[in-house]
Write a structure and sequence with these properties.
heterodimer; A: alpha/beta; two-stranded parallel ribbon; 8 helices; 9 strands; 16% strand; globular; B: alpha/beta; 10 helices; 12% strand
């Protein structure tokens, strides 16, 4: 059976936890025939997921350009090419604006904005035959998210980066898009999903009536990664319609 | 692998040989769906069905009664409708100040009232059967500029917002509704203009990916939106190679490009 990514080589950053979007995407890509390089800040953390998929594990801090260049080079060294690059690296950076420290703003900007910029740059430089670059945006980059100024604004900045990069990199036949997940049950949100009041408040704001899963995000990444997506510079909204409504406020978590 | 196996699909706007609707229907058939092709020209529909399979259903998309009858007929003959695509359109080019009330009425009937009544007819059918995916073919010009295209652009933009509103209301029934915005696509609708030397040269500069779209690009996006893998609703997908990042050429750009092409030809 032909896979939808047969012959393609993909780098995925942020795939260490088996319940992460990165790991779900890795499983889906592997099932569709792609060869994978999986990365996280610590190589030993991503080794388990990588071993289960016959993938290469590598340490990469996306705020460090030399580590990104080395990551892309690994794809070239191991498989001779790089076609797909997906970035799910993220840092929790919540809190009311008046209580958010300069360090929190800087860290959010460093990972979500600078890191995304360097990721796009270094992956594009390695994509000699064109390719598809995908980065994780957020529902909070699309609609008001109280107490998430650092997170939301750094993600929204990255979305504009995606547009500008797409316009520039089209000539190299490289497509650049982001995926905006809704409130998704994953390793990162497990604490929130443990609270029924939070789930109830969010569910009221989701037209399709269920939370997005890491599998939903992997499906969207697969479409963007395949040769079947004549789309670039876009934010793909996988919020099940929540961007048509709102995010609940903390006082509604009762 | 058949990505739409077991699905029942209705594609309206498929009564033009090799138009976008036919490309979508052809791809749906290849992905294992049962397909009803609909439109105004019965002979074209019959020829498609004879060659490709599926069933033909008559529809004048400007007429509510005809839309209702198409949906009822299709649901009966296929046993339900899981996927419905509206690929009708009228590519009128007319200066804003010269657009007549009759032209505007006809445009509104096809590109705003038609989709409105199409959604009204589909929601009960899909709601009763537990869900479905509806796809509206919009246009990049619903967000970016193009000359002499006001009636077309405004009705496409209006329908995009209708998609959001209806998606928001009926998501709980398992119905997803999205639109796709192609840019210039090689179809019979654009063939005449595209045949003029220099015209497509002017357009292609607006495409970061260096080419304009094909009906197959749109059909591929339809498969994504139609499949159970897609957890999107109320969205507008810009399936146009990045055109909206740049924009269409102005009328003067096109005229200059045509003049340059003619000069090259001597």
């Amino acid at each position: 059976m032909a896979g939808r990514l047969d012959g393609k080589v993909a780098v995925i950053v942020g795939a260490s936890n088996p319940q992460s979007m990165g790991a779900a995407t890795a499983r889906r890509f592997a099932a569709e025939g792609a060869q994978l390089i999986l990365a996280a800040r610590r190589a030993d953390a991503v080794a388990g997921v990588a071993a289960s998929l016959d993938a290469t594990a590598q340490a990469c801090d996306i705020t460090q350009e030399d580590q990104l260049a080395a990551l892309a080079q690994t794809a070239i060294d191991r498989h001779g090419r790089l076609d797909i690059a997906v970035n799910y690296a993220g840092v929790e950076s919540g809190g009311p604006l008046l209580e958010t420290s300069a360090d929190t703003f800087r860290q959010a900007a460093e990972v979500h904005f600078v890191g995304t910029a360097l990721f796009i740059k270094q992956m594009a430089l390695a994509m000699a035959q064109g390719g598809s670059i995908i980065t994780a945006s957020s529902l909070t980059a699309l609609v008001q998210a109280p107490d998430l100024s650092a997170y939301a604004a750094s993600k929204a900045g990255a979305d504009m980066l995606v547009r500008v990069a797409a316009n520039e990199l089209g000539a190299r036949n490289i497509r650049v898009n982001s995926i905006a997940p809704g409130f998704t049950e994953s390793a990162m949100t497990a604490g929130w999903f443990a609270m029924d009041a939070v789930k109830r408040a969010f569910l009221k704001e989701i037209p399709l009536g269920r939370f997005s899963t890491i599998g939903d995000i992997a499906n969207a990444a697969l479409w963007l990664a395949s040769d079947e997506a004549f789309i670039t510079g876009q934010v793909i909204d996988i919020t099940a319609g929540q961007s048509l409504r709102r995010t609940p406020r903390a006082e509604e978590f009762v | 692998m058949a990505r739409l196996a077991g699905k029942r699909a209705l594609v309206v706007g498929a009564a033009g040989k090799d138009n976008m609707g036919q490309a979508i229907a052809r791809r749906f058939l290849a992905e294992g769906a049962e397909v009803a092709v609909a439109g105004r020209k019965r002979d074209v529909l019959d020829a498609f069905v004879a060659q490709e399979g599926g069933i033909a259903v008559y529809c004048d998309f400007s007429d509510k009664g005809s839309i209702d009858a198409m949906v009822v007929d299709t649901a009966q003959r296929l046993g339900g409708i899981d996927i419905a695509v509206n690929a009708t359109g009228w590519g009128l080019l007319k200066p804003f100040l010269d657009t007549t009330p009759e032209e505007l009425d006809a445009m509104i009937a096809l590109q705003l009232r038609g989709p409105f009544h199409f959604l009204q007819a589909l929601i009960p059918v899909m709601g009763d059967q537990g869900g479905g995916s509806i796809i509206q073919i919009s246009s990049a010009t619903a967000t970016i500029m193009f000359h002499d295209h006001d009636a077309y652009m405004a009705t496409k933009a209006g329908t995009d917002h209708l998609v959001r509103s209806v998606a928001n209301q009926f998501g709980h029934l398992g119905i997803r509704i999205n639109s796709i915005s192609p840019g210039v696509t090689e179809t019979p609708m654009t063939a005449q203009a595209a045949a003029v030397p220099g015209v497509l040269d002017a357009f292609v500069k607006g495409y970061p990916l260096g080419r304009y779209g094909t009906p197959q690009d749109i059909a591929a996006a339809c498969v994504w939106l139609a499949s159970d893998e897609c957890f999107m609703t109320g969205e507008n997908l810009q399936v146009n190679g990045g055109l909206t990042l740049r924009g269409n050429p102005t009328k003067a750009d096109i005229e200059a490009s045509v003049a340059a092409a003619m000069a090259r030809q001597g």
